[in-house]
């Protein structure tokens, strides 16, 4: 039998009492063990009071009470403010807040912002957490507790914070049978069968976690939509979820299957310009709002990957989106219409198709339509250049769609901190209105003066006890929320606060882990798709390497379509001598990406077909550089393992062992990626693996013959 370390055995004995299974996420509120820090906080917090007892302010009360009790212990709720009271409320709920002359400051915060201020009132020192609306008070409470969780000073606070983006939503690709498309953390949280009568306490915990990072919307159903969710039977269940989420400031949205009028309504058509179709949607929407008065609206995937849409009736995306937008407009609802469209019947480069379809429609969408665009033009690859639609459709509010679930970055087995990936895209300069026209400014509406703005993240959450499968995948959920609130935050600062709240404030743990997280995405790109390679993963399930995939029923679902490897070289020529996809970018981006010499090497094979022997900036040939990346990526995972092992004892044994085992899988899979890709590409280059690099222990055929019919996350009908 395998011997378990003594510490681990001891820990197992105690877990019944206090288990660190990751359920509590970043909201652990364990006692601050650093005496000096705890004493300092106690001096500044002698009591607390929340003005008001609405559903949201009751949550504030519960959070503050729980948070303070957990972190510093026994702080009484007081009836009147004494010295060092923490006082929370809105100007409507609290006379003291009204008397503090904060009107202008509060007004400037918008309806979700908050203010945390150390001040004096009637000679008493107070910490005031105030907001124009109740939800801001909840956000402020979480922020204040975060200061404590991360051991920040609180004696002289003056913090104003409001979100840069209005709509901050999770997209759940959850099916009504509770499977989750591209979900790697168990089944769907939504127990449709038992709803509306059974309310799983987890729904509250889910909403609370989201509120703690400012997420204010959730699309609970898959973009590959099932019309049934719009039936009365399901709408009652949706309404029950909406009731749970409401006090947390979270609105519910549904995916709308475009053919629902036929499937549910028995109509002969779903033509958006047919008045009976419009009427069907108007009636359906009215029914939804009767049950859910603050229903957010619809998310739609149309005419993409076999989904029905307006083009089935020779109408365009604007016709479809506007028809739905008209139905929800009287109720202040919105339509998030996805730009993820491509068709293998179209002979053009897949990377160009979304822009080609949407650019001519710029300015023709209703005011309550947002076009939801993936970060890159292909499909959530480990690394993609930013989507050319950002910065080229000034008359249409564009939403960002990031993928938090790790479909293409190792499922929930690989430690990959995605904030760096999100940031690379957000910080990219579209040059739409000169230098500094970043993607972030496009989506927050500031570049083109759009009052609506939005960002969506495809959720990585499921029924796994720790929500996300990998303990570190929680960081991606967290970072998405934080960047949605403020895209100016750095990936590193977000990592730091997450580590402290999720694990420990011990800097000898925080620093090395921050370093691992910071490197982890680049590492993942290196051992999967270095130098701009893309879409070379296992067919359909996307598990593991499979650059050899060819001859499928759709060319654009094969790997050879994307890497174009030949005896001469490798890479997709999207320059002016190839598909000319670069022309969709503004200058000087188009010129930069289009030039073989200037193109950043991280995107080289995305835009160029390059000879195996051609020299790169390092002086090495392309072949040598490809090998170097694959080998270095795998080696880095080994270094993560080594570093992790030195940290045993600094955190609970349960999560320590969990991460340790997952890192071992990640290392094996990185080697698998390395070996399979290097051998496969070698079959074209005919060149030897450079000296000093270990030779793969299996022949290429071995890797090509591996099969994974039950890899998680796949849609049953694919
Ligand atoms: C791809 C996924 C597929 C989704 C699609 C989408 O493989 O399961 O349905 O994106 O975003 O990445 O619609």
Task: Report on the architecture of this protein.
This protein has 23 helices and 15 strands. With 718 residues, it is α/β, with parallel strands linked by helices. The chain has three domains: 24-161, Chitobiase/beta-hexosaminidase domain 2-like (Chitobiase, domain 2, 2-Layer Sandwich), CATH 3.30.379.10; 167-495, Glycosidases (TIM Barrel, Alpha-Beta Barrel), CATH 3.20.20; 526-572 and 609-704, Alpha-d-glucuronidase, C-terminal Domain. The strands form three sheets. An eight-stranded parallel β-barrel has the order 6-7-8-9-10-11-12-13. It has a five-stranded mixed sheet with strand order 1-2-4-3-5. The longest helix has 33 residues, at 653-685.
CATH architecture of the largest domain: Alpha-Beta Barrel
Cα distance spanning the termini: 41 Å
Number of domains: 3
Q: If helices are DSSP runs of H or I spanning 4 or more residues, what is the number of helices?
A: 23
Key features of this structure:
718 residues, alpha/beta, TIM Barrel, Alpha-d-glucuronidase, C-terminal Domain, 3 domains, eight-stranded parallel beta barrel, 37% helix, globular, binds beta-D-glucopyranuronic acid
Indicate the topology.
Elements: H1 6-15, H2 35-44, E1 47-50, H3 55-71, E2 85-89, H4 95-99, H5 103-107, E3 114-121, E4 124-130, H6 134-149, E5 158-161, E6 167-171, H7 201-212, E7 217-219, H8 232-245, E8 251-255, H9 260-263, H10 275-291, E9 297-300, H11 317-328, E10 334-338, H12 350-358, E11 369-374, E12 398-403, H13 419-426, H14 439-443, E13 454-458, H15 474-485, H16 491-502, H17 507-528, H18 559-563, E14 569-570, H19 589-594, H20 604-607, E15 610-611, H21 622-645, H22 653-685, H23 700-704
Parallel strand pairs: 1-2, 2-4, 6-7, 6-13, 7-8, 8-9, 9-10, 10-11, 11-12, 12-13
Antiparallel strand pairs: 3-4, 3-5, 14-15
Helix pairs in contact: 3-6, 10-11, 15-16, 16-17, 17-21, 21-22
């Amino acid at each position: 039998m395998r011997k378990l370390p003594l510490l681990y055995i001891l820990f197992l004995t105690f877990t019944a009492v206090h288990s660190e299974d990751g359920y509590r996420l970043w909201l652990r509120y364990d006692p601050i063990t650093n005496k000096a820090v705890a004493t300092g906080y106690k001096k500044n917090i002698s009591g607390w009071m929340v003005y008001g007892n609405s559903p949201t302010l009751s949550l504030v009360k519960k959070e503050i009470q729980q948070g303070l009790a957990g972190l510093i212990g026994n702080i009484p709720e007081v009836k009147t403010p004494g010295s060092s009271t923490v006082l929370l409320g809105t100007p409507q709920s609290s006379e003291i807040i009204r008397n503090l002359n904060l009107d202008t400051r509060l007004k400037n915060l918008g309806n979700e912002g908050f203010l945390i201020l150390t001040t004096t009132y009637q000679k008493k020192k107070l910490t005031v957490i105030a907001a124009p609306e109740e939800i801001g008070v909840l956000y402020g409470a979480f922020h204040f507790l975060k200061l404590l969780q991360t051991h920040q000073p609180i004696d002289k606070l003056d913090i104003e914070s409001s979100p840069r983006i209005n709509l901050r939503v999770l997209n759940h690709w959850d099916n009504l049978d509770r499977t989750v498309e591209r979900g790697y953390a168990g089944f769907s949280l939504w127990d449709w069968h038992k709803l509306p009568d059974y309310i799983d306490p987890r729904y509250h915990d889910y909403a609370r976690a989201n509120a703690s990072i400012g997420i204010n919307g959730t699309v609970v159903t898959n973009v590959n939509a099932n019309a049934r969710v719009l039936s009365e039977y399901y709408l009652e269940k949706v309404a029950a979820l909406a009731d749970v989420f409401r006090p947390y400031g979270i609105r519910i949205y549904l995916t709308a299957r475009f053919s629902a009028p036929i499937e549910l309504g028995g109509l002969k058509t779903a033509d958006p310009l047919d008045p009976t179709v419009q009427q069907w949607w108007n009636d359906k929407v009215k029914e939804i709002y009767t049950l859910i008065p603050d229903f957010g609206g619809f998310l739609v995937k149309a005419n993409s990957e076999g989904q029905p849409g307006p083009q089935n009736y020779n109408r365009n995306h604007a016709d479809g989106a506007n028809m739905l937008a008209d139905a929800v407009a009287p109720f202040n609802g919105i339509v998030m219409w996805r730009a993820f469209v491509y068709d293998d019947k179209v002979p053009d480069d897949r990377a160009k198709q979304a822009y080609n379809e949407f650019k001519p429609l710029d300015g023709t969408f209703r005011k309550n339509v947002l076009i939801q665009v993936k970060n890159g033009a292909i499909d959530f690859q480990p690394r993609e250049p930013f989507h050319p639609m950002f910065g080229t459709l000034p008359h249409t509010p564009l939403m960002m769609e990031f993928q938090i679930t790790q479909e293409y970055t190792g499922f929930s087995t690989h430690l990959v901190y995605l904030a760096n990936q999100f940031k690379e895209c957000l910080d990219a300069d579209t040059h739409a209105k000169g230098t500094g026209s970043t993607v972030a400014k496009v989506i927050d509406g500031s570049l083109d003066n759009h009052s609506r703005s939005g960002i969506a993240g495809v959720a990585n959450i499921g029924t796994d006890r720790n929500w996300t499968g990998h303990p570190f995948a929680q960081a991606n959920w967290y970072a998405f929320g934080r960047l949605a609130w403020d895209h100016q935050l750095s990936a590193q600062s977000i990592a730091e606060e997450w580590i402290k709240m999720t694990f420990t404030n011990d800097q000898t743990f925080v620093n090395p882990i921050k370093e691992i997280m910071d490197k982890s995405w680049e590492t993942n790109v290196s051992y999967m798709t270095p130098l701009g390679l893309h879409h070379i993963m296992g067919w359909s399930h996307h598990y593991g390497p499979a650059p050899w995939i060819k001859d499928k029923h759709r060319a654009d679902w094969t790997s050879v379509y994307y890497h174009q490897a030949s005896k001469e070289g490798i890479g997709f020529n999207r320059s002016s001598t190839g598909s000319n996809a670069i022309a969709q970018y503004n200058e000087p981006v188009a010129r930069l990406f289009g030039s073989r010499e200037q193109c950043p090497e991280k995107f080289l094979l995305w835009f160029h077909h390059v000879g195996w022997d051609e020299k790169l900036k390092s002086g090495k040939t392309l072949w040598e550089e490809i090998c170097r990346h694959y080998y270095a990526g795998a080696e880095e995972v080994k270094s993560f393992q080594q570093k992790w092992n030195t940290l045993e004892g600094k955190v609970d044994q349960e999560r320590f062992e969990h991460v340790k085992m997952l890192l071992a899988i990640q290392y094996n899979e990185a080697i698998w990626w390395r070996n399979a890709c290097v051998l496969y590409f070698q079959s074209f280059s005919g060149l030897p693996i450079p000296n000093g690099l270990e030779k793969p222990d299996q022949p290429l055929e071995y890797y090509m013959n591996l099969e994974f019919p039950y890899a998680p996350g796949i849609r049953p009908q694919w």
